[in-house]
């Protein structure tokens, strides 16, 4: 319990959407999204226009957020982790939760972990600084679609899901409590769990950190009775609304427990929209392409920071990233930074004073990074240079499906005048830009020289015996892995 006269340390909540595009929220311009609670946060908080994740993929983006380090350092590459993956986020990586634990913080994670399961739950959140975990250890589409009921009344999902995998489990800490997970009741379970966590922490006068990486709005979408059929946007809109309702529940709990004014709430998404799903994949609006690319639509995300009395409402055009969350929380909490190479920068000046960002550049590796190719793209100030481009999604824009292409000289884009990246600048027509390109190449060389690639955790491969099964001795697998 805190001494009577000491100031209460701030609490922290991170809401992290899944496959949500830059233009998917009403407060970012979507005309038919229904997100009253996120819109309220945007009105009362700071909305970012130039906020980035490190990469357009689920597992590596999560690793970067939680560690403040590029995924290449922690080894969460290439691609994403699977139910039977042997590797995971290395235990010597310090997460935000682990950083806060020495200060007495209660820590909890709910939702989509996707940073590894491993043998005997080696890589679960409870081994990465979190006291509590309720969620699915990987992506909810990494299981057979036939076991996923998306929307009442009992409408089955469709799509290509992993028919040879176990049904998707719901875990509490390191135990499977339900397999397959009941998706119609899942969001309510998360909301109840988060509410109880906050209530318990405040009753103990204990500061807390809640990390909620949602399954929404990753395809195939789902929603329970509270949100199903409630929007004009269809499955994507209903799933987004369900996430928004949970955010509203959590914000109401902060108000009820009288800690709203002492809690920093951050919202963003892991990567851009999965455009191959068309209307069920989300939208990046005027930004180019989407998930799994280094174009703006794949890595620039909606982001909101909310803290009544500390953060003044407004919009910032300062450059910021999920990498910056760990050092910012360290500054605000007084936590000691991990003794490793960090890529994040403290952004308290941006949050609390609407000041200038310490971040001048942002670099982007592909989902399949290598020392051979190096950086795919780099933003410096308002300019972004592409050394390689590669598409991935089935969409009308041919650049979004184009094969790997090397650019020498790099493609140079002015993101302020051309956010859709339609018009690469010509050095022949604009010789004055030569110095810009020279500065970009200097920054690129410095960043690449400082990058130490960690051992690839995903390259360790998969072992089917590691797929979670609530009845490990049953047969035949995977179909027998079912528990109430």
TrEMBL record:
<dbReference type="InterPro" id="IPR050738">
    <property type="entry name" value="Sulfatase"/>
</dbReference>
<keyword id="KW-0732">Signal</keyword>
<dbReference type="InterPro" id="IPR000917">
    <property type="entry name" value="Sulfatase_N"/>
</dbReference>
<keyword id="KW-0106">Calcium</keyword>
<dbReference type="GO" id="GO:0046872">
    <property type="term" value="F:metal ion binding"/>
</dbReference>
<keyword id="KW-0378">Hydrolase</keyword>
<feature type="domain" description="Sulfatase N-terminal">
    <location>
        <begin position="10"/>
        <end position="334"/>
    </location>
</feature>
<dbReference type="Pfam" id="PF14707">
    <property type="entry name" value="Sulfatase_C"/>
</dbReference>
<keyword id="KW-0325">Glycoprotein</keyword>
<dbReference type="InterPro" id="IPR017850">
    <property type="entry name" value="Alkaline_phosphatase_core_sf"/>
</dbReference>
<dbReference type="Pfam" id="PF00884">
    <property type="entry name" value="Sulfatase"/>
</dbReference>
<dbReference type="InterPro" id="IPR024607">
    <property type="entry name" value="Sulfatase_CS"/>
</dbReference>
<keyword id="KW-0479">Metal-binding</keyword>
<protein>
    <recommendedName>
        <fullName>Sulfatase N-terminal domain-containing protein</fullName>
    </recommendedName>
</protein>
<comment type="similarity">
    <text>Belongs to the sulfatase family.</text>
</comment>
<dbReference type="GO" id="GO:0004065">
    <property type="term" value="F:arylsulfatase activity"/>
</dbReference>
């Amino acid at each position: 319990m805190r001494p009577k006269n000491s100031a209460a340390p701030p609490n922290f909540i991170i809401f992290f959407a899944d496959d949500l595009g830059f233009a998917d929220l009403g407060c970012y311009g979507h005309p038919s999204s229904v997100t009253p609670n996120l819109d309220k946060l945007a009105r009362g908080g700071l909305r970012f226009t130039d906020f980035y994740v490190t990469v357009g993929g689920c597992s590596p983006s999560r690793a970067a957020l939680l560690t403040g380090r590029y995924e290449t350092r922690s080894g969460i590459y290439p691609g994403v982790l699977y139910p039977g993956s042997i590797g995971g986020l290395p235990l010597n990586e310090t997460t935000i939760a682990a950083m806060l634990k020495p200060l007495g913080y209660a820590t909890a994670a709910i939702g989509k972990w996707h940073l590894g399961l491993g043998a005997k739950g080696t890589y679960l959140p409870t081994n990465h600084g979190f006291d509590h975990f309720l969620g699915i250890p990987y992506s909810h589409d990494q299981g057979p679609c036939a076991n996923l009921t998306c929307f009442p009344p009992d409408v089955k999902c469709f799509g290509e899901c992993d028919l040879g995998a176990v049904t998707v489990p719901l875990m509490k800490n390191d135990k499977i409590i339900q397999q397959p997970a009941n998706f119609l009741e899942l969001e309510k379970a998360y909301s109840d769990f988060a509410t109880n966590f906050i209530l318990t922490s405040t009753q103990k006068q204990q500061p807390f950190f809640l990390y909620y990486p949602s399954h929404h709005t990753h395809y195939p979408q789902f929603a329970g009775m509270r949100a199903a059929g409630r929007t004009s946007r269809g499955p994507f809109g209903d799933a987004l609304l369900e996430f928004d309702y949970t955010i509203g529940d959590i914000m109401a709990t902060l108000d009820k427990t009288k800690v709203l004014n002492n809690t920093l709430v951050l919202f963003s998404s892991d990567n851009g929209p999965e455009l191959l799903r068309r209307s069920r994949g989300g939208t990046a609006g005027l930004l180019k392409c989407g998930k799994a690319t280094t174009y703006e639509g794949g890595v620039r995300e909606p982001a909101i920071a909310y803290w009544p009395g500390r953060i003044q409402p407004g919009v910032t055009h300062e450059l910021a990233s999920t990498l910056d969350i760990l050092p910012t929380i360290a500054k605000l909490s007084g936590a000691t930074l991990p003794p490793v190479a960090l890529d994040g920068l403290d952004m308290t000046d941006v949050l609390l004073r609407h000041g200038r960002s310490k971040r001048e550049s942002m670099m982007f590796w592909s989902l399949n990074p290598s020392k051979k190719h190096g950086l795919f793209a780099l933003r410096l100030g308002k300019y972004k240079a592409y050394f390689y481009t590669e598409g991935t999604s089935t969409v009308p824009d041919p650049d979004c499906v184009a094969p790997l292409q090397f650019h020498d000289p790099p493609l140079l884009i002015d993101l302020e005048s051309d956010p859709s990246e339609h018009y690469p600048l010509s050095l022949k027509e604009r010789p004055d830009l030569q110095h810009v390109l020279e500065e970009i190449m200097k920054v690129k060389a410095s960043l690449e020289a400082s990058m130490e690639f960690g051992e690839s955790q995903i390259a360790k491969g998969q072992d089917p015996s590691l797929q979670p099964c609530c009845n490990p001795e049953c047969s035949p697998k995977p179909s027998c892995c079912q528990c109430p």
